[in-house]
Amino acid sequence: MTASSPADDPEAFARAFEAAFQQAYLRFHRRDGKRSQMSGASRAVLLHLAHTGPLTVGEAAKHLDRAQSVVSDIVTQLEAKDLLAREPDPDDRRRTLVWLTPAGFDALDRERQVLSTELVARAAATLSAEDRAALVGTLEALNQGARP
């Protein structure tokens, strides 16, 4: 009995892909120092605001099921880092909304990154443009195939 080729058998492909993906993940995983990582609470506030749009601190606290004072402290810390800004509500000048700054959106994008784009770019420079396009296209097709 001959072993099936990953190209011929979805099960063999799955095993080969898992092994290759594991190596790629370990090789290209983003490794930041502790100081550059965002706390879970800060990340939650930024993510929530990115999904909902500008909110008052009270509304954000209610949505996040946290005390208003806790969310207010987080907002103040994020504001000091220029990741959030307070702005008057255009519909009700008595209310103050909090919203992500451009730096806040950038920080959130970095937080979502799993792989080091610098390491991937360095390795990708050794591939032809056709190979890079084929690799991305194949991964996108694989992801499409996983959709329900």
Automatic annotation (TrEMBL):
The lineage of its organism: Bacteria, Bacillati, Actinomycetota, Actinomycetes, Micrococcales. Keywords: DNA-binding, Transcription, Transcription regulation. Residues 10-144 form the HTH marR-type domain. This is Winged helix-turn-helix transcriptional regulator. One of its GO terms (biological process) is response to stress. InterPro entries: HTH_MarR-typ, MarR/SlyA-like, Tscrpt_reg_MarR-type_CS, WH-like_DNA-bd_sf, WH_DNA-bd_sf. It comes from the Bacteria. One of its GO terms (molecular function) is DNA-binding transcription factor activity. The keyword Transcription applies.
